[in-house]
Amino acid sequence: MSQTTDGKAGVVTAGTDDAMFCYQCEQVAGNTACTGSAGVCGKSSVVARLQDRLTGALIGLAQGLKNEAPCDHATRIFVDGLFITGTNVNFSEAAIQAQLDATMKLYTHQRQQDSRPYTMEALWNEQEDIRSLKTLVLLGVRGIAAYAHHAAALGRHDASVDRFFSQALAGIADASSTSADLLELAMQTGQINLKVMELLDTAHNDSYSAPQPTVVSQSVEAGPFIVISGHDLHDLKMLLEQTVGRGVNVYTHGEMLPAHAYPELNRFGQLKGNFGTAWQNQRQEFAHLPAPVLFTTNCLMPPAANYADRVYTTSVVGHADLIHIPTQVDGSKDFSALIARAKELGGYATDTLVPGTNGGTTVLTGFGHAAVLAQADTVIAAVKSGAIRHLFLVGGCDGAKPGRNYFTRFVEQAPADTVILTLACGKFRFNDLDLGTIGGLPRIMDMGQCNDAYSAIKVAAALAEAFGCGINDLPLTLVLSWYEQKAVAILLTLLSLGVKNILLGPSLPAFVSPAILKVLVENFSLAPITTPEEDLRRILGLAR
Ligand code: FSO
Ligand code: SF4
Prior knowledge:
disordered N terminus, 3 domains, binds iron/sulfur cluster, Rossmann fold, six-stranded parallel β-sheet, single chain, Substrate Binding Domain Of Dnak, Chain:A, Domain 2
């Protein structure tokens, strides 16, 4: 049986044949659910149903493990299977089917065919608050899997993270779970995400040295080049090693921008700058691009015909129309086809500026926890003297909805004695603005990718310690934009740390039922964004 919704958020009824049901991201149809033959993101109902079967098989595997630690193979199956079902990761029926086959092979081996795998219908048909909480956990675990995938590429694992995949997924199948049990599981999901973000932060810092503030050009030099998108710094490192002396430059795109700040990546002379802005602009920005693009993670959009022959995917990312670069058994990848394609396409004839959203020619990145805490005395003194009145973390995902210009307007209107910390792809709305400096520090400081929310948490904790107060007592407000499941995991981390008064936009998640939203509002004072003017007035206590 497939489902459609009856049009009200969170109410699922039996529906027509072959329909899909997905409500995992912010651009969900009608802020309710994507149903019918395709989702707003372009995911077909066939892929959606395969993803549901894959998720059901993973939950069945977890039930069989009964809270035991999964072996390395099972961990890989959990990580890849959860990551591949994320928004804008993989649109290929063949790739999802292959992942489902590998999962069912392990399931059959483990369960000895003692039962049929869990089906997502069981989740969709739960009482709405239970379904809401279980969905929150499932999506949070998908986010954790993405970060665990990157950490694993750098040889980093954590047994408690691996065990949590089976614990959390088995919790979703548990019919006896109460709302209180599931809220507790959601908070645990947040704590495990903190652990995996720390694991990844250590892996990045150890592998590439701590990020340093770095100015990145938005201009593309004449000649052959490759654009690399997504979050996987290990893929970038391999690409840089393979392009040494090949006459092909490399430009970051989207969430790869912070790579420029890592000394061990920046030392490659052919890593020249950043191309374009956030993921939702790729169809315009890649049209007629005289270069190939490599997607290492989300956010991939189904390609338009005018550039599909130039886009390559790797790892869990995929689309039937695109060439996939496989991972070899030893973890290496052969990018020679991509390099050859770059030479064939030739690049721009002359240096070409592709300006930022607001026309800027450069962007600044590299304010990880080490760089910011090196300036801690300056920041603390400026807050004490009143030179810095308030800090904002304006971070999270970008997306296509018109309401997202809220974040640009918020940053533009933030008074001159405030500082904006930012991270993830939402920053492309304002990271090319020149808002000046306070005490020698730029007013906009880019802390990195979405997983670098870990840096923001470290900085907030250090400031709280310096001021002898809790994070909620700092002159700091979090204004978050969400889009997909990594943002859900990060939100759960912040809630599990007791962070209150978070403003969330551009809309609230469709999978959160009214009663669960009430719990989040009452316990955490989580609130939707209103207008930049009103929110700034309220936060800063300004007169109307
Ligand atoms: Fe953005 Fe996409 Fe990093 Fe996400 S590129 S939306 S939360 O995948 O992961 O911020
Ligand atoms: Fe719809 Fe988002 Fe699901 Fe795509 S991922 S089908 S846009 S809810």
